Amino acid sequence: MRKYYLTPCQFGKSFSGIIKNDIKNIKSLTRVKLLLTKRLRMNFGNLFKSMKKQSQQNEAPSHWRKCPKCFAIMYYKEVESKNNICPKCSHHFRIGAKQRINMLADRGSFVEHDSTLEPIDPLKFVDKKSYKKRLEENKSKTGGKTSSIISGSCTIEGIPTELVVFDFAYMGGSLGSVEGEKIIRAINRAIANRSGLVIVSASGGARMQESTFSLMQMSKTSAALYRLHQERLPYISVLTDPTMGGVSASFAMLGDIIMAEPNALIGFAGQRVIKQTIGADLPDGFQRAEFLLEHGLIDMVVDRNEMKESIANFLKLFLGL
To answer: Is the dihedral angle over the CA atoms 26, 28, 29, 31 positive or is it negative?
Structure first.
């Protein structure tokens, strides 16, 4: 058998070629591994997202409610029977506009006005979604509502009243051109009928998607309330959790009587922004109803169960009934 011998130089070249091939193979394998890992992550991510959506769709509504203040867990009917007030610590849960109307207006007396008014998109505003898309989503989410306000005429303990109620579920109760117009029309009806006006606020402020159009509602509603004042007709402002931004900086703070629910968040800018601006810690209870009452910014803090009676008493007083 013939034997072949490699010189040191030949052996070095051969060994170098083997290593280069191995490196190429390792690199290609690494690329394949990374590609597979990426695809698997994407597939698993989509899988988990679809599972989460399905679980949310199939999930039955919970019959138990947890209080965010005392952390007690209660049967939902027990909470609803007390006007959505925690029976353990008296925390006031947020409620919708229709529930609020049923609480304040005499049974069967409320007649809604201007329900056909719908917002438009004059600026063609787009952030993560278009404004038009957000309006459609909120309309379907809230059962066909086109505004964060429900306004109408009713009686409160037999007293004719124009009632305007914000619904935080619709775009955070934000103030837009339609909401401003509904308030103006409610004021005009109050003047025409010589009745009182009650506005229940629950809002994050002016609607950014309408820019200046929404900001103009602050001065528009304030000017209309001045006309109501000149007619010597009462305006009672009820502040609920939360009342912030452009709403608190306009009509919400212009009431002849300003009352708030216990522990309601009321202010203009958020606490984090204020803290960063002034560079100091904020006092305990800052921007809560009790804090504002102590510092003279509101007139009274009223329990939800006593709200209707309190409003009726003030309407009787101002209207001379």
So the answer is: positive
